[in-house]
Amino acid sequence: MEPFNIHILGCGSALPTLKHAASSQVVEIRGKFFMIDCGEGTQTQLRRSHVGFMKIQAVFISHLHGDHCFGLIGLISTFGMLGRIAPLHVYAPAALKPLLDDQLKLFCNRLSYDVVFHAVDTSKHKAVYEDGSLTVETLPLAHRVPCAGYLFRERPTLPHIRRDMIDCFNIPVSQINNIKMGADWTTADGTVIPNSRLTLPADAPRSYAYCCDTRYMPDLYQLVEGVNLLYHDSTYDSSCADRAKIYYHSTSQQAAKVAQDAHVGKLLLGHFSARYDNEETILKEARAVFSNSVLASEGKVVGVE
Predict the structure, then answer these.
(1) pLDDT for residue 16 is more than 90
(2) What confidence score (pLDDT) does residue 52 get?
(3) Is the pTM of this model over 0.70?
(4) What are the structural domains, with CATH classification, of the chain?
(5) Residue 102 CB neighbours (<10 A)
(6) From 67, 101, 203, 219, active-site residue
């Protein structure tokens, strides 16, 4: 299977610390690279990740809080200094566009590439990006400002043709795609070899949901049902449940409840409050509800399986 990895650049909350950077991730899927959120310090974290700057083809911004977007104009500027020529697509709430336009005029008025802005309606669940191998859908979230998560889904692929069958029946390369599409094979003596004997099932499409920042949403599980990997706001442990409600964040128990209800494969906890010296309590409480829970950390690469 082709790589489908999540590179964690930052998983802290609003207050930067020496332990955690502001929110940012890179989604590596089938040879394409997409950034989700771009908090302050993202460029340094991107350097440490060894993901090439020029590989990033789009940036998805969840909402207009600084710890999720203050790094964007700096990243755009650096792309220009590195000689980028490919367009950079930015998906974000509509309110970012006039601010970004002003920053581009002031700081980046001689870019060698185009910045293409796509306004995201944070109130709707819809596809905002599609190509031949994947789709990206928005996930309406409940935060203090308009906010959307993003759901990355692989498109279904064709079955695998068995190499031993190609050799056994001398199947020409020109016919491989036809067989993957369902055709049988007829040998020179007229024997029909059924497609089921020639192929193996296609790999199951994989999916990743990014849900940060948000209050606990009892119905969110319906939108992320069955995803292989869920990243969910886990700013606090249960002792701060009242604070989570006030500031429109979630506890790790609440994140785990979403994962449990949605029957996801794995839960990735993140967006940790600076009040914690470590996140062991956050992890312990999540695992009590959903055992396959893990902590995000800067530099971590999590495979979507």
Answers:
(1) no
(2) 95
(3) yes
(4) 4-157+206-303 (3.60.15.10), 160-200 (no CATH)
(5) 11
(6) 67
